Amino acid sequence: MDDVCRQEATRLGLDLELGHSDFEGQLIEWIHQADLDYRAGRCVGAVLNPGSLGHTSIALLDSIEATSMPVIEVHIDNPHQREEFRREEFRRASYISLAATGTIVGLGADVYRLGIQALDQIARGSVDI
Q1: pTM of the predicted structure, to 2 decimals
Q2: Which structural domains are found in the chain, ordered by start?
Q3: What is the DSSP string of 45-65?
């Protein structure tokens, strides 16, 4: 997936920083740093796959709400079509969706490429948000 993301960013003329972490604090730090870069004109936004933190992390929601940059939430699978044992009510909702500019789900690894495209279109003013 990293290579696909790099190729898409290069195709669009964007620089790309990738990070992978299950540590909530690390994700929050990256979001705040990306927002500083966004405010300085060095970043067009963030693509975020929060995984299970999307269902539980108020802190991650708060960090996104505190930013001025667009954030695209992505999920490789469709959370609304998950197996019966993973359909508890709390797993159907994403706190991140409450603050995200947009959400892309269920399209496999392509969600990352599409998220980068969405940020590019937002930055170019091609998408009304």
Answers
A1: 0.91
A2: 2-124 (3.40.50.9100)
A3: -EEE--TTHHHH-HHHHHHHH
* Residue 33 in tokens: 């740093």
CA torsion 109-113-116-122 (nearest 10°) is -110
Q: Would you say 45 and 119 are in contact if contact means Cβ atoms under 8 Å apart?
A: yes
Task: Give the number of other CB atoms < 10 A from CB of residue 27.
Answer: 24
Beta bridge partners of 104: 74
Q: What is the mean pLDDT of each run of 10 residues along the chain (129 residues)?
A: 93 95 96 97 97 92 98 88 61 86 95 98 90
At 101, give phi and psi (nearest 5°): -65, -35
The residue with tokens 């940059």 is: 69
